[in-house]
Automatic annotation (TrEMBL):
InterPro entries named in the record: GK/Ca_channel_bsu (IPR008145), Guanylate_kin-like_dom (IPR008144), Guanylate_kinase (IPR017665), Guanylate_kinase_CS (IPR020590), P-loop_NTPase (IPR027417)
Residue intervals of the Guanylate kinase-like domain: 14-193
Domain of life of the organism encoding this protein: Bacteria
Annotated GO CC locations: cytosol
One MF term in the entry's GO annotations: ATP binding
Binding site for ATP: S21, P22, S23, G24, A25, G26, K27, T28
EC number of this enzyme: 2.7.4.8
Family: Belongs to the guanylate kinase family.
Organism, scientific name: Qipengyuania algicida
Record's protein name: Guanylate kinase
Annotated PANTHER family: GUANYLATE KINASE, GUANYLATE KINASE-RELATED
Length: 214
């Protein structure tokens, strides 16, 4: 694969940019805004046994598989990590991620805290962990209802789980409250931009500085 050319930085390793949030706090919304705004960022598409929601497209939002296929992928060690969530299984395929990171490709991961911990254990140097919080629990419920994708029972179970998910806030590098969506997006984007500049990622820095020093 060709080395990615970055307009703002020297040659560097890609960032594994993780966005997590309690369900309904807005990580899908913020992820979509980031992907639309940023050509250097690519979504890591997860594999799931959950059925598609209206409007979700195979290969774009998830790879939708049945239980047997998921079992096969686990056996073949095709996942970076996987976890059960709400009665379904979700996994991050290793695919070409490792090689692409070395070439400077940035990846966005929309995964929960369990997946975040596993990815962080496997690759601390590349991972950046961002947690999005709702401004309040009543607002979280309002957003889940407004999305109109879940039954009352599912919304109740998401609300219950939200409390458990929020308890993992301290396993993240950054915490951003999603009150105004544009403000939240701007903050998350600044985090990504700053992380790209981090000295440890800049594989092109040593030769460049040597040249400057003469
Ligand atoms: N561990 C792990 N979690 C994932 C992965 N993909 C998605 N998830 C999480 O699974 C949960 C349910 O996702 P989804 O069914 O799309 O509903 P959402 O809560 O509305 O985003 C979310 O917390 C996601 O962050 C993955 O590859 N690994
Ligand atoms: N800052 C915000 N203010 C109001 N509504 C929001 C905000 N961010 C997201 N939403 C809405 O809340 C609902 C849940 O957001 P979504 O991005 O699907 O959450 P998640 O992916 O975390 O489950 C969606 O209908 C979305 O349009």
């Amino acid at each position: 694969m060709a080395i990615i050319s970055h307009p703002d930085t020297l040659a560097r390793r890609g960032v594994m940019f993780i966005l997590s949030s309690p369900s309904g706090a807005g990580k899908t919304t913020i992820s979509r805004m980031l992907l639309d705004a940023d050509d250097e960022l690519k979504l890591s598409v997860s594999v799931t046994t959950r059925p598609p929601r209206p409007g979700e497209v195979e290969g774009v939002h998830y790879h939708f598989v049945d239980d047997d296929e998921f079992d096969r992928l686990v056996e073949e060690d095709d996942f970076y990590e996987w976890a059960p969530v709400f009665g379904y299984r979700y996994g991050t395929p290793k695919g070409r991620i490792r090689a692409a990171l070395k070439d400077g490709q940035d990846f966005l991961f929309d995964i929960d805290w369990q997946g975040t911990q596993q990815l962080y254990q496997k690759d601390q140097q590349d991972v950046v962990r961002v947690f999005i919080l709702p401004p309040s629990l009543p607002e979280l419920r309002r957003r889940l209802e407004a999305r109109q994708t879940d039954s009352i029972e599912v919304i109740e179970s998401r609300m219950e789980r939200a409390r458990a998910e929020i308890s993992h806030w301290d396993a993240y590098d950054y915490v951003v409250i999603n009150d105004d969506v544009d403000a939240c997006f701007a903050k998350v984007r600044e985090i990504l931009q700053a992380e790209r500049m981090k000295r440890q990622r800049q594989t092109g820095l040593i030769p460049f500085v040597r040249e400057l020093m003469g």
